[in-house]
Amino acid sequence: MEAHIAVQEQGPDAWQIPDLEEVLDGARVVSLLLRTRFRGQTERQALLMEGPKGWGEFSPFPEYGAQESSHWLRAGLEAGWRGWGAPLRTHVPINATMPAVAPDQVESVLRRFGALESIPAVKIKVAEPGQTLADDLARFREVRRLVPEAGLRADANGGWSIAEAVPALAALAEAAEGRFEYAEQPVAGVEPLAELREALAAAGVITSAGAPLRIAADEAVRKAEDPLRVARLGAADLIVVKVPPLGGVDRALRIVEQSGLDAVVSSALDTSVGLAAGLALAARLPHLPYACGLGTAALFTEDVLRSPLIPVGGALRVPGAVVPSADLLQRHEVGGPRADWWFDRLRAAHAVLAADQQARERASADAGSGAGPDADLTAGADRRPGRSF
Ligand SMILES: O=C(O)CCC(=O)C1=CC=C[C@@H](O)[C@@H]1C(=O)O
Ligand SMILES: [Mg+2]
């Protein structure tokens, strides 16, 4: 991934990851229950770490290997050991996130995101395995009925083929009656997104407001080897950016800048510790045209903060560094073999970051710059002794 993202680790933004022992010291594994099945899961586990700048989260999805998980660790270490830079705004507008539930559950899910009239937009999961377009339309129409002023989005997680996506999006855009904001990852991959845009234009699919249907890339950014390819190929109108898979707020910021596209910051179904990093990113984007998908603490029964980051009035305040409650950490703590499994994952991801760092140091020494990573630490970042990898 690093080879493609023009994200420099030398120069003014470089920083050094802390020692493994220091990261493990005081790290806790927690499990939070979801109110509704989401992404096929009923609970979310996360490893939380405390650094000198605050708490960071490491919660790659269970099936992710060490390489992919290393981006998530980098993001968590950035939160704990480096910090995020100054915000440009105090509040971020937040969309409600609607799992693939039956219409009779839509209202109770929506209400978790605050007063219905305050919700600026709703992202609705569609194309769920085992469900039909009729199920999606019924859910979509129920959302539209309950929050008629809200913008509507459909997230298919790449679940449609191009041939399925064209009529499905035409039907959803019609059901949205002018409120359709965009379709998120309707088909899998980068090229297929570009092809779908052409197919929609050829089929004359437009929103009822008369505009072309906008396409957002999510997995095509966060799981791609090269997150900027979407932009280069003109495969999407906007990108969904998530701090953990993109390796931190600093990297995500640069990806947005370099893409030249509008961005929506979303969660990775993080605890409120991880959501704080998403809010830090949203707060640093000069242009934030859409409500962000950072309200997912509302999908948990409980969280690790005394005041979980649940939207009020359609927005979240940008909290800066957050501190979990000792009681809640204890209540949700996971021990035994499952905790060991998480610590092993952390060790493996840390080894990937350490090897990357070592390679960069060697390259920098070979180039004769003489500037080791310590010399490149950003002003304001902690100058930690760190390990020389
Ligand atoms: O974007 C949102 O409104 C909330 C976040 C969200 O939907 C997701 C978080 C984590 C995993 C994904 O399945 C899902 C997504 O695809 O965007
Ligand atoms: Mg998505």
Structure description:
Mg(2+) binds at residues 155, 184, 218. Residues 365-376 have a biased composition (Low complexity). The chain folds into 2 domains: 11-85 and 327-376, Enolase-like, N-terminal domain (Enolase-like, domain 1), CATH 3.30.390; 91-325, Enolase-like C-terminal domain (TIM Barrel). It has 13 helices and 12 strands. It has helices spanning 20-24, 66-82, 103-111, 133-146, 162-175, 191-202, 219-222, 229-232, 243-246, 249-259, 272-284, 326-332, 336-366; strands spanning 28-38, 41-51, 54-58, 91-93, 96-98, 121-125, 151-155, 180-184, 215-217, 238-241, 262-265, 315-317. The protein has a 7-stranded parallel beta sheet. Strands 1-2-3 form a 3-stranded antiparallel beta sheet, with helices on both faces. Strands 4-12 form a two-stranded antiparallel sheet. The two termini are 20 Å apart. Bound molecules: ligand 164 and magnesium ion. The ligand O=C(O)CCC(=O)C1=CC=C[C@@H](O)[C@@H]1C(=O)O is lined by residues 39, 95, 97, 123, 155, 157, 218, 266-269, 293, 296. Magnesium ion (MG) binds at residues 155, 157, 184-185, 218, 240.
For this entry, give a set of tags.
389 residues; alpha/beta; Enolase-like, domain 1; TIM Barrel; 2 domains; seven-stranded parallel beta sheet; three-stranded antiparallel beta sheet; 12 strands; 37% helix; globular; disordered N terminus; disordered C terminus; binds the ligand O=C(O)CCC(=O)C1=CC=C[C@@H](O)[C@@H]1C(=O)O; binds magnesium ion; Enolase-like_C_sf; O-succinylbenzoate synthase activity
How much helicity do the residues have?
A: 25-40%
Task: Give the N-to-C terminal Cα separation.
Answer: 20 Å
Just give the CATH class of the largest domain.
Alpha Beta
Shape: globular
**Which structural class fits the helix and strand makeup?**
alpha/beta
Order of helices and strands: HEEEHEEHEHEHEHEHHEHHEHEHH
Could you say which small molecules are bound to this protein?
the ligand O=C(O)CCC(=O)C1=CC=C[C@@H](O)[C@@H]1C(=O)O, magnesium ion
Query: Which strand order do you get reading across the main beta sheet?
Result: 5-6-7-8-9-10-11
* Number of domain modules: 2
Number of E-state strands: 12
CATH-assigned fold name of the largest domain: TIM Barrel
